[in-house]
Amino acid sequence: MLTNIPEVKLGLIAVSRDCFIISLSEKRRAAVADACGKRGIDIFECKTTVENERDMLKAVDEVNAAGCNALVVFLGNFGPETPETLIAQRFAGPVMYAAAAEESGDDLIGGRGDAFCGMLNCSYNLGMRHLKAYIPPYPVGTSEDAAQMISEFIPIARTLIGLSELKIITFGPRPQDFFACNAPIKGLYELGIEVEENSELDLLVSYKAHANDPRIPDICEEMAKEMGEGKYYADINARMAQLEITLLDWAEKHKGSRKYVAFADKCWPAFPEAFGFEPCYVNSRLVARGIPVSCEVDIYGAVSEYIGMCITGDTVTLLDINNSVPADLFKQDIEGKFPYTLTDTFMGFHCGNTPACKLCADRAVKYQLIQHRLLEPKDSEPDFTRGTLEGDIAASDITFYRLQCDSDGVLRAYVAEGEVLPVQTRSFGGIGIFAIPEMGRFYRHILIQKRYPHHGAVAFTHCGNLIFETLKMLGIEDIAYNQPKELPYPTERPFK
Asked: How many contiguous H segments (helices) and E segments (strands) does the chain have?
């Protein structure tokens, strides 16, 4: 269970234009609440129906008193344009607007509400007031339709609430020549995210202060149970447990005014020699409980991970868009078995930060091969480069995505859906063979053309639409996706 994301408490307010029958809106509101209950959606039904500004103030007070942090405004009939949009202005959390469909061809005189028309004026008024609200793809429907819209709003609301209360804690500086990690933090402030930047030395001092912490043995036991006999290094478990406690304590003490945290930490080249191990397995354990720890001080990677956690309610990972799939491997294990071309596939990799629950059964704590070559004597047994969590990533639907701030300070993002194939990688690290339709074109005309870094966040389900809607709510205007062949990119060659 993730412990670092918000719990959404929904409120439902019905609105009614004063020249329409108020009981129609109230009846339809009750039907929506009932439909939500049947789906297991906990929603507070506000009994004040809003016809005017005084009703609006009373209704907002009512949902606030009930502890609501997200709100559904339901047009049971045409609705009053000013009061209904002032709800979004007065309420502090995310707000969704939806409208009632007409119910029967036999009741289009006394039972006609015209909310289909009212929704147009509602959106116009929201725009006039520069208010952001979530409006579903088709926002008019029956009570069951409205409950479905609300179920999709919940993860969007959870993400918006989480980001508004998020602090990114970094231990840097960001690596030299790693431009993936050197993005302006201006965009984070525009999103309302707080940032606390620290030195790697600050972390080392705090780590040393946690030596012999009485909680270490219990965490060591937990690590051993999680990995299983023969799949970890017993002699470095205590060191890794010490880091886990250090980060958890730092998060608690440094949240400040915020409720949620994510880390962006420098993990090489000095870290393993100074701390005596690689931090990857610890990072994987924290992200498994809902606290992202992005590699290489990738601040926007940490934010991207947090978005995926809030959307899915599940753990995520951060990977390099790392290497192409060899043609011989593709021919042997993929071609004819899966509906992909060679350029639809690639390998996603990181040293070992992916949670154990998302890896195949043969996963184990190992050593970082590249760092071992670089930092330890040639032909020596691995020592302080141990601590990665390695194994093939288990087959799964995935959404590959990233929020990024470019060198001009402009926020942009991409989202693509695909899958991890059940094919052995024959390689090292936490790694998987990913397949995304039209990845080759997407790679060239989005990732390269728009100068995205090599890190991407991975959610282990198809949730592209929800991430897309959330990014729209955040005001991101450039949201790219893997376009089908029939829809060329602007920079794509026009002739065959």
From this structure: 16, 18
